[in-house]
Amino acid sequence: MVFDIQRLLLVVTAAFGSSSIGKAQPASTPYEVRTCVVNSIGESCPLLPVANPIRYQTQPVTNPNACEDTVGQRGSLSFVDITLPPNQVLYVEVTTNVVGQENVGSDNFHVRPSRLTEPWGIPTVMNNVASFYIADTGQYSVEFASSDLWKDLLRAQNFDALMLFVNPPMDPIPSDAALIEEDIAQFDNVGGGQLARTLGAGKYYFSATQTYDWGQDVVYHVMDDTEVYFEQNSYVKARIIQTKQKVNNVLVRGYGVLDNAYPPTEYDIPGESDDGSRQAIHILGKNIEISGLTIVNTFKECGEFGYALNINANWAPLAVSPADSLGVFEAGELQNGNPPYKARPAHCQDFNMDDTPNTDFTNCPTSPNDGAKVSFVKAISWQMGQDGINVGKYGTVTDSFVRVVDDALKPWDSGAHYERITIWQLGLGWPINLGWWGWTQDDVGTSVENVYLIHNQNWMTRYVQVQDSANPDQCVYDCSTSFILCTVIFFM
Q1: Region 103-122: what's the mean pLDDT?
Q2: What is the mean pLDDT of residues 145-170?
């Protein structure tokens, strides 16, 4: 593998939380947020409560003490979407109601990534209230806590976190988009009670006034020229999948929440619930755009697998439906053996799984121009096996956030680009996982720039800290491997 990391900025400052996901803020909310918009830093304005609900999550697994998949993660996460107009500045006031976070003083208050926020001025902190400015879009962790907290694993795992997702304005939903109703009759039973619906060419939207919770796993399949919009504050417990064919021109956009909330009703249905399809979003094809979504995973059971976002995943074959004589694809085939594997068909990979050449590149990206585009996406999960973002060959990810208990970014393909990503790495996985199974294609020419690693709880339990004698306040980790040599410096 040749992997080009340009200006890789891993700005780490520590972190952790706990869970019971997807709810709006409880009666006794951990945080209150008021904002207003000004023209420049230093100006004041009348503060008002944020217009959007502050969503609140705790560890969703019903019995986390009996589940190693949670890796001890507890605490809570509150988050809210806020819109910042171009060339404006957000003035923010946050009140914490979390016991132990009061009276921390300005020295123990942080808005991370601090590399971005420090030039915007020193926050004002009094008792349990802090005010500060945010002068650009991005994802910001507001912390009433000393830096020493992140050196204590138990305290980090039980921290009550607040994320401000500061977004640019988004174009309105087209007036000719069709409402997706909450009626369960819209779905087909594709086997064993597993429900799915195909959204053909056209425009569709999820409404903030509908309740998209059917008490079980449901799948929406996208096709060529499908556009799916999420009304602001919409909350949808479903998955968006297309792994049975390669599609062209798919748009999924909006400041709503997509929650992979339920395990499949019937496992191992190709294109619905096989390992390659059991994701919150997995789409094969070209000219795919995903923007604005918050993707969460609120499984209550242990050991439930599922990425937040996959585009053209290089480890998964094209789903053959119905299953052929080889049976349904399982990721264990890759984990427990070496290539060549079974003769499963590639989608956009250079080779099929048995190492024979792929001859069908219909609707496959050929350059960054038709590769996937992902922006202002937030990926959040609470147990291992639920990774973050993989954008596929020639894909681009910008201005996004990942907080997961597994690998955050998966730059496993050629020609991809990841930039301006904020990562809060929980107790398992790598912030950047540079590669895995090699049956498909070379991984070359991918770049990762300006990644802000605000917390890395993984190192608290697994890695040996080596002090840099030239910079004693910095922790240096040697992550050299056979295919890449890099030294990652965490600025504490």
Answers
A1: 94
A2: 94
